[in-house]
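Pipeline run #58 for the internal structure catalog. This entry was flagged by the ingest filter as a single-chain record with no existing model, so it goes straight to prediction. Upstream metadata was stripped on purpose; only the residue string is passed forward. Reviewer on rotation: M.T. Logging verbosity set to normal.
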Amino acid sequence: HVQTRQIQEDLLAYINAAYYAREQHVPFSDWDMLCEQANTYLETQLQSYCTKWIVKNFPQKLSPKAQAQLLRKRIGPASYQQFVGMEAELTDLYEQLIAPGPPWIIVLAGLGGMGKTSIAHRLASTIIEEQSFDNVGWVRVRHANSEFEKWRRANQKEMVDTDMIFDHLLEQLAPNVYHYSTNSSLTTLELLQTRLTAIPHLVVIDNIETIEGIDTLITQLDSLTNPTKFLLTSRIDLPNEPSLYSYRLSGLTDQDALKLLRNEGAIRNVPRIHSAPDEILTPIYHATGGNPLALRLVVGQAISKPFDVILDEISQYPVDQTEAFFDFVFADMWEQLNSQTKALLINMLLTTNYGVHIDFLSAITQQSLPEVRATLTQLVAFNLVNSNDSSTSDAERYTVHSLIRTYLRHRLPLLPSDLRHHWQTAITQSSHYLQQQIQATPALLSPEDQEQALHVLRMGFDDLQFWHVVRPLLLQLAPKMEQAGQRELWVSYLTRGIAFSNQLEDLAAEAELRFHLGTLYQRRSNHPMASAEFQMAADLFAILAQSEQQATAINRQAYVARLQRNFDQAQQLANQALSLLNEEQAERAYSFLVLGTVQLDLRNFDEAERLLRHSLAIWMTAGDHRMTAWCLTNLGAVLRPLQRYAEAIELYQQAIRYFEKAHDPIHLAVVWMNLGNVYLLQSKLRDALGWYEKAHAVFTRFQEQLRLAQIQTNMGMAYFRLEQWELAETLFSDSIDQFTQIGNIGQAANGMDALGLTLMQQARWEEAIQVFQQGIEQLHNLEHQSSYEKLLKELQDHLQEAIEGQQGGTK
């Protein structure tokens, strides 16, 4: 006994000296204390080992059917009755999830209502059915927005912090351990690590962006992966976490959005939705940007509201459920932004669907590129701004979702004074920036630049106080838009500008805008409206004592009169314009152009050539490439009937070079058409058709109805000469329809003469007779009938031939 005690005391001394003294722990006082703590330690270690072994080796065992039922109950019912669209996204995400290696944590990011939870639910459902993982966990985090309860079922469990998330996961995935885990020395995280790193699970955590300390959470989740994978949904990107695989959702495609609308309309018995044609539903797609929740809200509102009311509410001022929807999607994130970030986001209202370069944003905010880029990084992370993820700074572009655009417009009247000032500055600076771009671009504006300029005009038109900003942009843009072949769209902008200038008594702006509007009406072959606008512009310029501008408007009115074959009025107006101009003013050349083309129409070719060469000399001296080319084109038309074909071709070649310098694709195509006419007269039919086809493509692209009708007639003549009657008949018929549609009855009658001759070649006498009679009747009804005497006689002669042919065929 004495010997045993001595051994115990020696061991106690050795232990205290070797370990506790070194670790600065309180030494054991006696052998009993040592034994007591040793037993406690061994019990704890054994318990920890046993717990880990149970967690790892004894998961809850259920039959496959019972397991699937349990998991389906865990993830809850779908929020959709039929899943529509995003098939590519589903396939991509499913393949990422079931792949044996990384990514281990996938973040599904996108705006509220974009369908993140629905996609996560669809993926989890598929994985449950396919048994791709041993188990599935599902946790929904409470959303911070007070409106959230309106959009999520009240009976769903919603977590509020990381500890509760892990407790809930352990309860789901290892209920046999969870109930006595409070007595374990292991933390919940350690217990989850034991299970999830040994057995493959899929864990979905919904709305993760609302958790405080998200960086810590991601680090903890990272320790739970492999073979387990996590699918997180978030309204914001988490780009600075290297272990995350971020997958950003955008809206549905147009076809999928329309399919969703119709499906929802059928399910909820809303006939005006599920039976509506595409052209009715497409504006809803554009207004919502394909956001599935917004589309479903539209279906609900369509039960009692017509489409135009719904669209107005979405695009102007959200009400009823729509207002709650906007609060749900954006209000929480808006409140998280500082003043500078809010200002840039508001300024993103000035971007289009094409997006804008960062230089534009720097210009309108008057901030440096690094400052703007830093703010954009935050907005992109919040999914409030979209980036095209370009690898080069030259190509990087930024834009916003259409729903964000609508929400921001909703907030404009509510802005505090500092943000309101930022918005006013952005409108002003964007106009200045675009004016500089236009001045620096001699060629046509790109479609992106055109749309950007139009968008700034639209925003500026919202408030009369911005007229001084949009006025110079509108006037500077007008020639570019006319040259680019803009017609219907640009008319609405000019009309809006005229209304503003009239309201503010800005006579100078109104005069210029009416001049441009007259030009557009002329291009659309609406000659009465063109003449009226040129007349009003001339009157306003007269009031302003701007004689050169007055003469310019009168000259354009004269040219319209010539197109209407009112030759007396055309010459009178051209001479009136000349009386307002002095010898040094280049606008005199336009007067001579009008007078020369009138003589061309009257077939006084020598006088026409003299006047047009006089006009050409003035334009060349002035250095006006476009008008020089136009004069050369008309001179070529004078030389054609004189059979001076080589000279005409040379003039057309010169015109081509000038129009290319002027970047005028439409009038360039007119020259191609005239070159085709020369080759047609020389019976070089294939050469003629080659030029016609080039011109036809341009006229079709720019919807030049008059030119299309003309070239269809010319192509018909070439095929007539080639004896390809069916092609000729089709082209003549199309040209007649086009001329009739734009009110050019004289040219329509000319097409009827050609069509009648084509029918005669096929011995279709009765049809030919009807066509000739229709052409004669049309000419008899014309106001300036005398200018069509030659054509009228030809129609009458051909009618007689058709009648004789019919009689000869019946004998």
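catalog note: Residues 2-57 form one domain.
catalog note: The two ends are 152 Å apart (CA to CA).
status: ready for reviewer M.T.
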